[in-house]
Amino acid sequence: MDVLPILSTLHRHKLTAWLLILEIALTCAIVCNAVFLIGQQLQRMDLPSGIAEHELVQIQLGYVGNTPDAKAQTQTDLAALRQIPGVKQVALTRYLPFNLDGGSNTGIKLNPQQQQKTLDAAQYLGQNLLPTLGTRLVEGRNFRLSEYVDLDAAVAALNRGNLKGLPQVMIITRAIAERLWPGKNALGKTLYVGNGIPFRVIGVVAQLARHKRLQQGVEYSTVWPIRMTSADGASYVIRCAPKDRTAVLKAAVAKLKQLDPNRVVLKARAYDAVRRAFFANDRAMAGILVGVIAALLIVTALGIVGLASFWVSQRRRMIGVRRALGATRGDILRYFQTENFVLATIGIALGMVLAYAINLFLMLHYELPRLPAIYFPVGAIALWLIGQLAVLGPALRAAAVPPVVATRSV
After folding, report:
1. Cα distance between residue 279 and residue 263, in whole Å
2. DSSP letter assigned to residue 93
């Protein structure tokens, strides 16, 4: 179909045509970036933790009144928990991946004389931690019993400046190993934390996500051979089969209360609840963006329907003349669909430029990655389809105008 008559007609209705073009452009720009942001949120929510998420339950206790011998109580608790049917492994640790309660981090250097740290990494403390969490060791070995240090002893040694009283070895993630020693074997290498405290790398795990800080280095985590007690604010982490979690959690809480009634249960949950709570805001944001996209597309479609309906009512004489001169219903239908396609194409072209500009702004101020080029053709096709569907009703009404009715007004 010749578009010159269409352009001539649109030129006579410049204001309404440009309003629709701007509406389509804004919709295109916002929808492209909103869909991209939804993808980012979903990708963030799908970050691997490196642990057996569906096999873990967590119990944190608080003391009422005098605290008993924490070390002895902890050993009694651990022994009792291991006897519960269905329990595979038990550990005591303060933090878990994707934890809303904060976390402990440390700066890592390759040289004790460095002024700036090479990277920042999460600290995981606890005995029997890797088997309990289900974290896969890909190189080296786990800690030996002789390598563990009690938390209070480590703090005292640090305060005295006694490096021999501190742990001497560490397990790191593969991401840290590749960052510090790219292309080399990290086993046996020495790294330094804090004010130049040396640690020898004895093991590398495939993945272990950080507690809370996910913006950079989400896989930068370290595991230290430090024993903790429940009085240190640590939680009992129990690994069992997914189907046994509810029964094991109930039995473990009852057993711990039986061993010491002067304790209150601060947390008793499956790890799934930890992850769900951590990413609650991301799910809410994705839902809001979906709502925004739906609202924009509906408003744009209604705008196309309204404008097309207005133009049909204004052009009944033109339609009647064309029908009287031999134009078929299909010709009238194609005319309005082509007209809408032209408007949509101009709006989409402007929208892509605007979408790119918005993405540059987000990259500059919110550290988002560049908008992939695939979003532009996908957004264009979606808006073309919506435009053609929206104009179909008014176009069918225009095609249904009888020539004799239209020509009576000539």
Report:
1. 30
2. E
Q: Decide if 130 is inside a domain.
A: yes
For residue range 149-197, list pLDDT tens digits in order: 998 888 888 888 788 888 999 999 999 999 999 999 999 999 999 888 9
| Residue 178 near residue 207 (C-beta atoms within 8 A) | no
Tell me: do 117 and 208 sit in the same domain.
yes
Distance between CA 266 and CA 356 in Å, rounded? 48
277 membership: H or E segment, kind and range: helix 271-278
| Residues of the domain holding 107 | 95-227
Q: Is residue 77 part of a domain?
A: no
Strands (E), 65-127: 87-93, 105-109, 119-125
Convert the pLDDT of each residue in 74-107 to its tens digit: 999 999 999 999 999 999 998 899 887 777 888 8
Cβ count within 10 A of residue 75: 13
Distances, alpha carbon 149 to alpha carbons 84, 119, 146, 228, 299, in Å: 27, 25, 8, 9, 64
**pTM of the predicted structure, to 2 decimals:** 0.79
Q: Give the tokens for residue 216.
A: 């950079």
Domain check: are 103 and 11 in the same one? no
**H or E stretch covering 57:** strand 56-63
- The count of structural domains within the chain is 2
The torsion defined by the Cα of 23, 27, 28 and 30, in degrees rounded to 10, comes to 140
Answer whether residue 70 is part of any domain. Answer: no
